[in-house]
Prior knowledge:
Elements: H1 11-62, E1 74-75, H2 84-87, E2 108-115, E3 118-126, E4 146-150
Antiparallel strand pairs: 1-2, 2-3, 3-4
Amino acid sequence: xNTIRHxxxxxxxxxxxxxxxxxxxxxxxxxxxxxxxxxxxxKRKSDIEQVRSALExxxxxxxxxxxxxxxxxxxxxxxxxxxxxYLSPTYISAIPKDTKNVSPYIYEYxxxxxxxxxxxxxxxxxxxxxxxxxxxTCTPDTGFNYGVxxx
Length: 151
């Protein structure tokens, strides 16, 4: 018997190959998104540390922290109410801003520890995307899930 063999792939083989490729692409996209979120969170933490360093330099020179946000949360980069009026450009070139969020996302600041009209503490809050930290050192304002403070 003389049978003719056609060279090529069957429909089932093609469907399996396409399915495997689609799964690999989905995994790659999910990993890429997670890595981007973690990268932005690392940048946010770094920015908070820059602000924290500027606050410590301000305190070293003045003996207390700026009164911006005294008793309530304020937008840290606000030119009149926020830290920018106290820290920029002497202690930090500019208060960092979040590049991801649609609304003008700024690290928020609240002065704490009032004594004799001067503040001896602070809390700076930010929002992390990839995970909610379990060890907040201060309680940030609504919508913020990460914060650092002194003391």
